[in-house]
Design brief:
single chain, alpha+beta, 60s Ribosomal Protein L30, Chain: A, 2 domains, five-stranded mixed beta sheet, two-stranded antiparallel ribbon, binds iron/sulfur cluster
Length: 454
């Protein structure tokens, strides 16, 4: 079983697949190399990017992430404020400090190669790392993939559907039907069942501390986003909107009775503007869709009567438990599924999480998750300029409001419904497979070709 802590990962923006994954892959490559005899003779390094990473990598910060990963940085640990200075030093000196300890010459123009028209076999986000020395015998090369949500895969790794860090989970499930049956047999709610699985690897206190840490990270991201003004990097000149909306809400809370929706919008915009600015965010399940879960969590905790910290934990456990179903039966990668795999999954997770936080029964939680995805089916990924800004930022605000509505529709009924979550996940997977590649994070179709960059 996957752990919810593998799905909610603290990292940096703007993209889990194009920033977090490549940084982790670059570091992992060198950590593999460090254990081998070739390590001592390495004097050069080439990184080749394929498919979506090559097509939208510059806009998504893949080039910077690779350099930082090669220097040994971890996306969960790096201080985002130090990044510009680090990159400036690497580029000015023309050198890289491999894992922070071995210096080699490195020229981006020569050693970081973008193959936009080629793919590696297993996924459209492929990377090839090749290290060499003066002697031809000193050569080590490995292919890696960034498969969405910050997850990485080595070329020789088994299918990720079989992965996960909870091999001893007492209640493993691969479908929503299995999850519901297990929960009914054990007399557990979905959050309780997910908690029991997490407790196979650590104590209940430690799981709760981990959930509380995530909640603090979500809050800190929202806080920074609500108060950071300015224009986002990348050349689209997108002005941050969250601070303006936040100020308006504070000054004139309810001009037309829609202030709850405005608060949810403000929270989601805050997170995704932080993400686009390269700030600290939590994958939920990806960076591009990182605003939906925290926006709905903030709505629950600060705007719903009775919202409390125990409910926040139930929310995260249920949302994570639902995300596992997408991870093993479809994909949470925009490059594989289009935006239905990112914003659609986040909407489904948040709807389920909110239903659980508000005391919904298991059938209502599953129904909320189903509605959250059903009305995102077919959503394409077409980021303008290859940046995680248009349509991504606004789309998170829309997705958050949609998740709340999905919960309301589901919890207004007794849980009986016609379309199951398993059916909708299969539909999403098939739709993603049928979707043409220009709508899957390549910036070769949709808004990306109809909105002029300037
Ligand atoms: S359009 Fe959706 S899937 Fe594509 S980068 Fe933006 S948020 Fe991610």
């Amino acid at each position: 079983m996957y752990s919810v802590f593998e799905l909610f990962k603290i990292g940096i923006g703007p993209s889990s697949s194009h920033t977090v994954g490549p940084m982790r892959a670059a570091r992992a490559f060198l950590q593999d190399l460090e254990k081998r005899p070739e390590w001592g003779g390495i004097e050069s390094l080439t990184v080749e990017l394929y498919g979506s990473l090559a097509l939208t990598g510059r806009g998504h910060g893949t080039d910077k992430a690779i350099l930082l990963g090669l220097e040994g940085e971890d996306p969960a640990e790096i201080d985002p404020d130090t990044i510009p200075e680090r990159l400036e030093r690497i580029r000015r000196e023309g050198t890289l400090r491999l894992l922070g300890v071995r210096e080699i010459p490195f020229s981006e123009a020569q050693h970081l190669v973008f193959h936009g028209d080629a793919l590696l076999p297993r996924h459209s986000n492929g990377m090839r790392f090749t290290a060499g020395g003066p002697a031809p015998a000193v050569r080590f090369s490995r292919d890696f993939y960034s498969i969405g949500g910050g997850f990485i895969l080595r070329a020789e790794d088994p299918d990720p559907g079989a992965g996960g860090s909870l091999p001893d989970a007492p209640y493993p499930y691969r479908s929503a039907a299995e999850l519901l049956t297990l929960a009914r047999r054990q007399g557990l709610s979905i959050p309780e069942l997910v908690l029991a699985n997490e407790c196979s690897a650590q104590s209940v206190q430690s799981v709760e501390q981990g959930l509380d840490r995530l909640w603090r990270a979500f809050q800190s991201c929202v806080r920074r986003g609500l108060t950071s003004e300015g224009t986002l990097p990348g050349g689209l000149h997108v002005v941050r909107r969250a601070p303006r909306l936040y100020q308006k809400l504070q000054q004139n809370p309810s001009p037309d009775g829609f202030d709850i929706m405005d608060w949810v919008n403000a929270y989601a915009l805050a997170v995704n503007e932080e993400n686009a600015g390269g700030g600290r965010v939590v994958t939920a399940p990806t960076n591009g869709a990182a605003g939906i879960v925290p926006a709905v969590l903030h709505y629950y905790r600060f705007h719903v009567k009775g919202g409390d910290e125990a409910g926040v934990r139930r929310f995260l456990l249920a949302a994570g438990g639902i995300c596992i179903l997408y991870k093993i039966n479809a994909s949470i990668s925009g490059a594989e599924m289009g935006c239905q795999g990112e914003v659609g999954v986040a909407c489904s997770m948040a709807a389920a999480g909110l239903a659980a936080a508000l005391g919904g029964n298991n059938a209502q939680i599953e129904h909320a998750a189903e509605i959250g995805m059903e009305h995102n089916l077919g959503l394409t990924c077409d980021p303008v300029g290859g940046l995680v800004q248009i349509p991504c930022i606004e789309r998170n605000a829309i997705g958050a409001v949609k998740a709340i509505n999905a919960q309301r529709l589901a919890c207004g009924e007794d849980g009986e419904h016609r379309v199951s979550l398993d059916q909708v996940i299969q539909t999403m997977r098939q739709t993603g497979l049928d979707m043409q590649s220009q709508y899957k994070e390549t910036s070769r179709g949709g808004l990306a070709v109809n909105v002029v960059e300037c």
